Amino acid sequence: MTNPLLFEEYPDLEGHIPWLNLLEGPTPIKSLANVEQKVQSKNFLWIKQDSLTSTIYGGNKVRKLEFILADAIEKDKTTVATIGGLGTNHGLATTIFGREKGLKTILYLINQPITKHVLDNLKLDFHFGAELKFVKNYLGVGLYFYILDPIRFHHIYWLPAGGSTPLGVLGYVNAAFELRNQVKEGLIEEPDHIFVAAGTVGTMAGLELGVQLAGLKSQIHGIQVTDRFAASKGKVKKLVNQTLQLLKQDSKLKNFQYSPRFILSTTFYGGAYGRVTPEGSQAVDLLGQSENIKLETTYTGKAMAGMLAYTKMYQRSGNLLFWNTYNAVDMTPIADKVDHSGLPVEFHRLFALYKNKLQ
Ligand SMILES: Cc1ncc(COP(=O)(O)O)c(C=O)c1O
What we know:
Blueprint: H1 5-9, E1 29-31, H2 33-38, E2 44-49, H3 61-74, E3 79-85, H4 89-100, E4 104-110, H5 116-127, E5 131-136, H6 138-152, E6 156-159, H7 166-184, E7 193-198, H8 202-213, E8 219-224, H9 233-247, E9 263-265, H10 278-291, H11 300-313, E10 319-324, H12 332-337, H13 348-358
Parallel strand pairs: 2-10, 3-4, 3-6, 4-5, 7-8, 7-10, 8-9
Antiparallel strand pairs: 1-2
Helix pairs in contact: 3-4, 3-7, 4-5, 7-8, 7-9, 8-9, 10-11
The protein binds pyridoxal-5'-phosphate.
């Protein structure tokens, strides 16, 4: 790929905004005709497969990291430190693509319900060379990630949770232009509503700003999957406005006014990050059985449950697009080969607890 669409749209940005290529081309769009039939939807249902952003490791982080890692390299940093739950997909993506670009990674991890996916991601973090720090909760994050360690270590690029910084958000502004091109090519009718998981809300903020810049009528529905500290309407608006400031380096955007039109739905959260909900599980099963598409219960199952509830409730809404943010590359063959005893000792207990739970 030569340049991001963003630089084609706004040529003044090139050279002012850091970027490197990780995405392997536009991600496919597909009709969810079988789901439509199963749930007797009067609306047209579609999926945008950001699960296929990369054949190394897919999902939504790839788009954010194109701008973030370029910034770290431009600032001469040798290491990226970031935060997440024990099974953070964002942390794993940062580790994998950071390594590709010669950067080390440190992950500050907090507790979350333990599943096989969580333990596999921990093993993969270790396998791909991340240094793992178990800081347990928000207090630990505040103390070590935000206060003590930044004072001590200057070679480190401090990346907030989910890569949801204005630069990370640009990845999804860019994605909205990709969607606009796919609409122009006739691959999908212009979506009336777009549904996406809202964790640290960078993805939805990028889409919210991007569809407006790209002249699409779509309304963004973020389905909240984390607590209010990570996901709130105020945070979406703040991220959109900060990202817009970056974009205003292009003369075309000097007078652009953003007016919020997104919805942040709390209905499918289930009260805790990572908690499995019945609606989320049903959505995962439905997509697996009828379309052979793999979702999971922490993010994408809940977001799909949001779209399914919407189509049931609002029968004449037109085209609904589900933005699939979950990596589709099967990492289990690698994870299965990793011996967890190599991880720092404070993580061993988690593997033992999970084994006991299964017995
Ligand atoms: C699979 C998946 N979907 C969605 C998200 C949420 O994206 P954001 O943090 O930009 O809201 C994440 C974040 O880690 C994720 O791993």
